[in-house]
Every structure is written in structure tokens, then in C-alpha cells.
Write a structure and sequence with these properties.
about 325 residues; alpha/beta; Quinone Oxidoreductase, Chain A, domain 1; Rossmann fold; 2 domains; 7-stranded mixed β-sheet; 6-stranded parallel β-sheet; NADPH binding; ADH-like_N; Quinone oxidoreductase
């Protein structure tokens, strides 16, 4: 019998329980995989708290990497022994083994480790759609990314710099500021000591930003709107500090005919062709050295509760993985 983390009732980190779990056998179009590493993300926290509602009991987690053990009928292009990774909605990753739809799996190149793959599928493909699809960043753009030293932030800083943008970030400590600067950010604002809106205005000499990527939510709204030039785009893709409060849509016109969107990765990779494109571009960025994926924290799967406490307490930086 294998082990998995289950949530029986939404709540705090203590809701994460290590239990026996039988993954079963793969059916038609499915594969059984053994996880080697599991990515830790804020979406896992949202699932645990009930913000992203899943039917209880459930196994949380969106991304992992491992090895194919068996495949069901109708599966082509995968065989036992293949190294694979995935990012899916609906949980299921906090387990030693799982059965999953085979069309959600992508092959992992030899040059990329299991830990790197597990820790970058959600965050890396999120950066892909943010920079390449939601607002296609081009040379000369000025962008602002909150939580610059987080998992998404560190990847975004490197990738956006490669695309020719001026990259501004926010962070909460000198250590995180230095980390962000080492990962492509041109300027990093300590939002605990500075008004980030005023700092952005000064850094850009009043020209402000083409786009703001905001995963913080409540604490950075509506300040993020004030960092945008006319016709700029506000991209809200997370809410680590709480939900963005309801606002009158006319606020966007008052602040310069702004665009606002609330995207989610799983819409962008719903089609198999889009998933393959996202993974291909991400793997290429990592293999070329443009984007470096460094694992800053590792926890045993059995200590998932401690990992969640540290993530919510802003004690982690960059990429964190759970090891089964």
C-alpha cells in the first residue's frame, strides 16, 4: 500500500493527513506513475483552505514528476520507464503513486532533473502564458511583478529579461531583493519600507508600466492599477494576501482605459497542442540556460503540513518540492 496526503475537511495545515492510498490500475487513456518529486504551490494552499473547492476527502497538489509504471488501453507514445511530468487541476499530486490521464503527461528531457521538472511545471507554464499569451512581452516593455522572489517571480524575471523588458519587482526583505536581482530583475522595491506605487513612478520617470503581474491580490490592489500607463494591463493571477475586493469597472476607465484580466493556467493548456507548446518552450528556456530552476527547499511528503506553514509564513523562496 502506498501513501498519500489527504484533506478530509478544509482548514489549516493540520488538515493535511498522511494515509494509506491505493492508486488502482490505469484504465483506458490513463497511466500509472510513481512520483519522484512533487511541486509545492499556493494553489495547494487554496485547495486545502477550500478557496478552490474540491470534494472531500481529496489529495491536494497540482504538479509532479516521476516514472511511468503502467499504461491503460489506447495510450500511445508512453511506456513503462518513461520520465514524465504534469500540471493538472483537481489535485492528486501529494501521493507516492497516482493514476492520471495520459494526455496530461509530457516527457521530461534527460537534461532536466525530476526535482526541477516537478517544481517548474505549474510555475514555469504560468510564466509562459503570462509573458507569451496574456500580455505578449516585447523588447522595450516595462513590467512590474509582485512577489519577485517567489517561484513564479524568479522564473518570470529571467524569462522577461531575455525578452528584452525592463523588469521591476517587489519583495519583503533584503535577502529576497538580492535573490530577485540575481534572477533578471532590474529593480526590486522593498514594499515593507517603500510605497511601491511611488517607487515605480520614480523608476520609470513617470512613464509607468505596460503590464503588472499580480499574484498577491488584496494587499496590492488598487495600487497595481496606479502603476500602469494608459491602456496598460492588470493581470491578477493569484491572491496570496486575499481576494481582490469587488470594484466598479468604471475604475479602469478613470485610471487610463486599463485592461484587467484574471487568467488561470489550466485554460491555456486545456488543449493538448497548447500543453505541448507550453512545455516545449519552457524546457527550451531551461535547457538553454536562460531560465535556471534552483530548488531552494525540500520537505519529505510526510511533512507537507510544515511545508505549507513555511510557504504561508513567507519563509520559502523560489521553488520548493516534496519528496515521497
Amino acid at each position: 500500500m502506498t501513501k498519500a496526503i489527504r484533506v478530509h475537511e478544509a482548514g489549516g495545515p493540520e488538515a493535511l493527513r498522511l494515509e494509506d492510498a491505493d492508486p488502482g490500475r490505469p484504465g483506458r487513456g490513463e497511466a500509472l506513475i510513481e512520483h519522484k518529486a512533487i511541486g509545492l504551490n499556493f494553489i495547494d494552499v487554496y485547495q486545502r483552505k477550500g478557496l478552490y473547492s474540491l470534494q472531500t476527502p481529496f489529495i491536494p497538489g497540482a504538479e509532479a514528476a516521476g516514472v511511468v509504471l503502467d499504461v491503460g488501453e489506447g495510450v500511445e507514445g508512453l511506456k513503462p520507464g518513461d520520465r514524465v511530468a504534469y500540471c493538472v487541476a483537481g489535485g492528486g499530486a501529494y501521493a507516492e503513486r497516482r493514476v492520471i490521464a495520459a494526455d496530461r503527461l509530457v516527457r521530461v528531457p534527460d537534461a532536466i532533473s525530476d526535482e526541477q521538472a516537478a517544481g517548474m511545471m505549474l510555475k514555469g507554464m504560468t510564466v509562459w502564458y503570462l509573458l507569451r499569451r496574456t500580455y505578449p512581452v516585447k523588447p522595450g516593455d516595462t513590467i512590474l511583478c509582485h512577489a519577485a522572489a517567489g517561484g513564479v517571480g524568479l522564473i518570470l524575471g529571467q524569462w522577461a529579461k531575455h525578452l528584452g523588458a525592463t523588469v521591476i519587482g517587489t519583495a519583503s526583505s533584503q535577502e529576497k531583493i538580492e535573490l530577485a536581482r540575481a534572477h533578471g530583475f532590474d529593480h526590486v522595491i522593498d514594499y515593507t519600507k517603500q510605497d511601491f506605487v511611488a517607487a515605480v513612478r520614480e523608476l520609470t520617470e513617470g512613464r509607468l508600466c505596460n503590464v503588472v503581474y499580480d499574484s498577491v491580490g488584496k494587499d496590492t490592489f488598487p495600487g497595481s492599477l496606479d502603476c500602469l500607463r494608459p491602456l496598460g494591463m492588470f493581470v491578477s493571477f493569484g491572491q496570496s494576501s486575499g481576494l481582490v475586493p469587488p470594484f466598479n469597472i468604471s475604475l479602469l476607465s478613470q485610471k487610463g482605459s486599463l485592461f484587467a484580466t484574471r487568467p488561470i493556467l489550466f485554460t491555456y493548456i486545456a488543449a493538448r497542442s497548447d500543453l505541448e507548446e507550453a512545455a516545449r518552450e519552457l524546457f527550451a528556456m531551461v535547457q538553454s540556460g536562460v531560465v535556471k530552476i534552483v530548488i531552494n527547499q525540500r520537505y519529505p511528503l510526510s511533512e507537507a503540513a510544515r511545508a505549507h506553514q513555511d510557504l504561508e509564513g513567507r519563509k520559502t523562496t523560489g521553488t520548493t518540492v516534496l519528496i515521497p
